[in-house]
Amino acid sequence: MSLGLVILVLGLLYLLIVSPRFRRVAAVALGILAVGLILLVGWYEQNQAEQKSKEEAARNLIKIGQIELVDPRVSFSSYNGSPERITGRIRNNSTYSLGSLELRLVFQDCLAQGGCETVDDEKTDIYINVPSGQSRDFDDYLGGAVLSPKGRITWTYQILSASAHVD
After folding, report:
1. How many beta carbons lie within 10 A of that of residue 153, not counting itself?
2. Angstrom distance (rounded) from CA 1 to CA 83
3. For residue 24, how many other CB atoms are within 10 A of its CB?
4. Does the pLDDT value for residue 11 go beyond 80?
5. Phi, psi at residue 91, to the nearest 5°?
6. What does the alpha-carbon distance between residue 117 and residue 152 come to, in Å, rounded to a whole number?
7. What Rg do the C-alpha atoms of the chain give, in angstroms?
8. pTM of the predicted structure, to 2 decimals
9. Sorting pLDDT into bands at 50, 70 and 90, what band is 104?
10. 67-85: string of b/e by CB count within 10 Å (b at 16+)?
11. Cα–Cα separations (whole angstroms), residue 144 to 88, 126, 128, 138, 147
12. Which has more confidence, 90 or 12?
């Protein structure tokens, strides 16, 4: 295959050297290709900017207080004790359809004689479509640190942001 490519390139170079007409055709074709490439790059960048603008607007439509997590639970790996899954129900009390939710999970190791120590602090995104005024169950994987508790593991969550569903 590389031999065929070498022969093709050598043939094109030969035609560029020998034929003035081929040079003109090649220059026009190269110009059309360059203009097409510039238009394609411009379209792609404009599309990316529009998508980013939509996502930013979606983050501002739903207030954190309009979203509830009902009975959230975390399960831990039997292999290494790391947080493995988070499950529960998301209730959307906003007027917009929910598309994603960003959570902060804090895991603490609490000793029997009192005092807790934070052993993991992570953020996770849950992508779920919850229409306005409805609820949906969720089940998502976590990628937390290995936990070796000296006492009892407790955890808390905080909703950091909620984004509306963007088409």
Report:
1. 19
2. 51
3. 10
4. yes
5. -110, 125
6. 10
7. 28
8. 0.66
9. very high
10. bebeebebebeeeebbbbe
11. 18, 15, 21, 18, 9
12. 90
Rounded to an integer, what distance in angstroms lies between the CA atom of residue 145 and that of residue 80? 9
The single-letter code of the amino acid at 90 is I
Alpha carbon distance 123, 100 (integer Å): 13
Q: What CA–CA distance (Å, rounded) separates 128 from 8?
A: 52
Angle at 53 (CA atoms; ends 52, 58), nearest 5 degrees: 95
Which run of H or E residues covers position 42?
A: helix 20-61
Q: Is the pLDDT at 1 greater than 80, yes or no?
A: no
Residue carrying the six token digits 């306005």 = 132
